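Exercise 7b. Backbone tokens:
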């Protein structure tokens, strides 16, 4: 799975559902993707927040990219504080967000990886999270072949992918290799925000601010299905 900066609950549902979760570091960085950005709620509207990336070659992997020198983590932290200071679980969640943002790290992958670990700990997820280069360092495989190879190296019987991958992966092709392929779909059950129309699929930080840790762990983390 690609690394994503403070992604929505579905990412963590997937981590929680598997025995081992592989997070890619040796994968190309896509500028227009969601690796380094997400959305939070401000004045009832979704607002995009971003980890700005230093200008560099487009051919570099995520682990070779660095956060821009002008990124002000305290400014982003202040924006989040301003948006959520009156949320019911702000005082419980804010220290986690602070720990994520204020780490002394400019490598983009390591910064994002740290954020995933921090949230997983907050949600009490015990899944082993593996960095891809620790398994397939130097591989030239891509696409489906890379997934098959990773599964083989990890002695996996089942591979679970987000529902968006239905057009990329064929269950019959996985079956030919002795693998079960499942797709994860998050139900995104609404929860109470500040009022007004519910905004779904925001960064996990939104759920952390509005929902208790117990409810997150016992309901929202399992509010999904596998098809």
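Sequence design result:
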């Amino acid at each position: 799975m690609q690394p994503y900066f403070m992604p929505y609950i579905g990412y963590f549902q997937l981590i929680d559902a598997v025995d081992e979760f592989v997070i890619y570091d040796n994968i190309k960085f896509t500028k227009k993707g969601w690796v380094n950005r997400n959305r939070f709620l401000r004045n009832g509207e979704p607002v995009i927040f971003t980890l700005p990336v230093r200008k560099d070659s487009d051919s570099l992997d995520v682990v070779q990219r660095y956060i821009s020198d002008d990124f002000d983590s305290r400014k982003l932290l202040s924006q989040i504080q301003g948006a959520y200071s009156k949320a019911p679980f702000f005082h419980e969640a804010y220290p986690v967000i602070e720990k994520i943002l204020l780490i002394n790290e400019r490598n983009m992958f390591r910064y994002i990886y740290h954020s995933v670990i921090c949230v997983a700990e907050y949600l009490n997820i015990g899944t082993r999270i593996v960095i891809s280069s620790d398994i397939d360092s130097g591989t030239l495989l891509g696409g489906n072949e890379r997934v098959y190879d990773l599964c083989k190296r990890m002695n996996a019987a089942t591979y679970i992918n987000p529902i968006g991958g239905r057009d990329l992966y064929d269950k019959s092709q996985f079956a030919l290799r002795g693998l079960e392929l499942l797709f994860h779909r998050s139900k995104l059950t609404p929860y109470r925000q500040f009022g007004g129309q519910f905004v779904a699929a925001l960064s996990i930080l939104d759920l952390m601010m509005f929902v208790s840790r117990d409810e997150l762990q016992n309901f929202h983390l399992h509010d999904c299905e596998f098809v």
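Instructor comment: DSSP finds nine helices and seven strands in the chain. The chain has a mean pLDDT of 95.
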